[in-house]
Amino acid sequence: MAFSLKKKYDDLEQEISGLPVNSYNQLVFKKFLKHKLACLGAVVLITLIIFTFLGPLFFETAYDDMDFSAIFAPPLSENHFLGTDEIGHDVFVRIMYGGRISLLVGIVSSVVSTIIGLIIGLVSGFLGGVWDKLLMRFVDIMLSIPLFPVLLILSLVFGSGVFSIIMVLTVFGWMRVTRLVRGMTLSLRETEYVMASKTMGQNRVLIILKHILPNVIPIVIVTTTLNLSYAILAESSLSYLGLGIQPPMPSWGNMLQGSMSYILGTSTGYNPWWLTFFPGFFIFITVLNVNFLGDGLRDALDPKFVSES
Amino acid sequence: MKSYFLKRTLELIPIFFIISFIIFMLLNAMPGDPLLQMRMDNPRAFAQDPERLAELREYYQLDDPLIVKYFDWLKNILIGDLGFSSQYKISVSELIFSRLPNTLLLTVTAWVIGIVLALPIGIYAAVKKYSVFDYSTTVFAFVGISLPPFWFALMAIILFGVILQWLPISGIETYGIMGFWNVFVDRFRHLIMPAIVLGFIQVAFWVRYIRAALLEVLDQDYIRTAYAKGAKERRVIMRHALRNAMIPIITIIALDIPYFFGGALIVETVFAWPGMGRLMYNAVLASDYNLAINCLMFLAIITLLSNLLADVLYVVVDPRIKLDERKGG
Q: Is A158:A168 a contact under the CB 8 Å cutoff?
């Protein structure tokens, strides 16, 4: 009897090993590839990163080089693919340099704020009790402070370098992640395997790291992309209002601000629309594709979220 | 119901104190000297009389400890004295109440545009799930969410204001226009672009939200029952589905009120619309301390109140919610 069972088991195992086996990562990857917009997003974003970070290496013009023979040159003119501004800065080159800063600020601040939010959320959800109440109240309060005016003031307080913008965006970017992670941790804390771990005397930190963190990670990745699109928009808004990255260092936001004075065409006699159009267009394309990517990641990573498309 | 409302309102009081304290500390960390404007306006008086500066600092109690200043400020808010704007030379409350109607006009118009566009589009997309229309709204929503508002505003100005010259590009009125009807048309023409820009951004969020909320309801058993009983599609959607889907929709529409005020800051700046957002932006830039701190507090109170409104509405429209159980989620 025992022998035949063993044989059956072996047969079954052989049968299974013949089938293609997908690991979790492979499954996620396959699901992601099915989401066409997300693939498009990933490709465009990688291209943008290569374009902004490696692109300037192939151009001799620097972001602050001035070409006085071509002032307000329209796009597609000789030597200046996207035209020039009022003192002959090449718009194409400045978009590459500006993109470096916009992407850097966005990526760093969204990743850092997500990590902070993750840690606070895990601790709050796992400890529960008074700590949880206090932390969640604090999150509520942070969320009810009108964000944009406060960002304005903070960027005045901290000054307007790349680092301080990252800091400002991080300080006010972690609350939503915290709420999300805390909610998940609360329910995960009550699962059998966490209970089992606890009764076996497992260290609390190890329980969080081994049992809770892996379950939270997918949601956190998705939120990071949302935070990224938000951070890029916020940085460009601040720079646009003159409180973010300061010229002559270009960022997509401050390039737009620079174009403001020429919009009416009164000082030039015609309208240099390309100064306004291209920087904003790049912000738009970046944020759009980050959102595509985030949507695809959510479909692929979240088992509870059944894809609609 | 009454006790719930009371409880939520009472809960606002400690939050009010904490937020006001955070705002106060922020504003005090801001660089700039509250007397700077005064000195710039009247350099000679200050040069002739060096002690004047110290007197003024004494008079405005600028050297008091922070905590004393904080409670002074709170006391002044409670008695309705918001101080004096160093930039505009009139009282802050007068300034705020002269700008508030402009912001309300802009945000309410944008809000209405948002609802009027988002509701039918969202509902139709949910009813015709996976149709071409549904997919186009998805793409449209992505575009709307990703559009930088200031760029959208600038491109609208370039296209409709500069190239086509259909609409005025900035401000709220043309100087020297007379007659009720002319003024009305003029205001309206100034309002169109900012309101559409401000409303459009929200439409994208709401369309997705409304669609999702309605789809969830359409999945329920009672919808199938209604169809099985032979009810017409129109009636099922209007009477059975939409009524239930409205619960989360109303909440999100109320919760988003502060976003309009936040978005108004950028839109007002781009279109030079003389409202609260622009007022506050200029106050911060000019270190107009009294004006900045009170505008910010005003916005914070609006945020708190709309959160309260959303919470209460949620309970009012959804009879299933038991008040004491709500706290857990």
A: yes
Q: Cα separation of A79 and B136, whole Å?
A: 39
Q: Averaged over B316-323, what is the pLDDT?
A: 64
Where helices occur in A22-128 by DSSP H, the ranges are: 24-34, 36-54, 91-127
Q: How confident is the model at residue A240 (pLDDT cuts 50, 70, 90)?
A: confident
Contact B145 A144 (CB under 8 A): no
Using an 8 Å Cβ cutoff, are A292 and A41 in contact?
A: yes
Residue among B145, B157, B304 whose CB faces A291 most closely: B145
Instruction: Count Cβ atoms within 10 A of the Cβ of residue A106 and give its class: 0-12 exposed, 13-18 middle, 19 or more buried.
Output: buried
Segment B201-256, tens digit of pLDDT = 888 888 988 888 888 888 888 888 888 888 888 888 888 888 888 877 887 787 78
What percent of the residues of chain A are helix, what percent strand, and what percent coil, each to the nearest 5? Answer: 75, 0, 25
Give the mutation candidate from A148, A151, A164 for the B interface (greatest B CB count, under 10 A). A148
Stated pTM of the model: 0.83
- With contacts defined as CB-CB under 8 Å, which chain B residues touch A259? 154
Whole-number Å distance between alpha carbons of B242 and B254: 17
Residue B130 tokens, joined: 């996976």
pLDDT of the residue at A3? 61
Is A273's Cβ below 8 Å from some Cβ in B? yes
Length of chain B: 329
